[in-house]
Amino acid sequence: METEDTVRVMNNQPSANLKYQTMTYFYYKTNTWNSQPQISEDQINLWKHLSEKNNWRIVQLPNGFYQTEYKDIECPCDPEDDTCCEKWHDVTRRETMDGAEAAIDGSVEHYAKKVDFLKGPKVVKTFK
């Protein structure tokens, strides 16, 4: 009977006979997870930052292409003093402005879903 602590190992035999070999405790503990990996607070903050369209911009390059960029998350912007750092991170390049805007919309939607999934599973259908 196969259990969680066994693994199938092929012994380089020409036939398809499988032999069972018990995992060592060290192998089992270093190659299995007891829980889901935790996402850092910095990563969550970055996802929230990228899920807001006002943190994005489109820049036209000298070769005629359009580059999408997002504002650095550490940028201390103060709208009242009209001060903002000019540190932007390039993401992708497109041939048209519409293509660049569509890429930004896709990225915003992608990161908004990631932020939404942090709340945990959501019910999509129930049965009576």
Give a quick set of tags describing it:
5 strands; alpha+beta; three-stranded antiparallel β-sheet; two-stranded antiparallel ribbon; 128 residues; single chain; disordered N terminus
Give me a quick take on this structure.
The protein is an alpha+beta fold. It has helices spanning 25-30, 41-50, 97-117; strands at 6-9, 19-22, 56-60, 66-71, 88-94. Helix 2 packs antiparallel against helix 3.
What does this 3D model show about the protein?
This protein is an alpha+beta fold and 128 residues long. It has a domain of 77 residues. 29% of the residues lie in helices and 20% in strands. Strands 3-4-5 form a 3-stranded antiparallel β-sheet. The radius of gyration is 25 Å and the shape is extended. The relative contact order is 0.13. The N terminus is likely disordered.
Strand content: 15-25%
Which outline best applies? extended
Query: Which secondary-structure class do the elements indicate?
Result: alpha+beta
Based on CA atoms alone, the radius of gyration comes out at: 25 Å
H and E string: EEHHEEEH
SS summary, helix count? 3
The level of helicity is 25-40%
- Kindly report how far apart the N and C termini lie: 38 Å
User: Biggest β-sheet, characterized?
Assistant: 3 strands, antiparallel
Low-confidence stretches: 1-17
In spatial order, strands of the major sheet run 3-4-5
Number of strands: 5
Mean pLDDT: 78
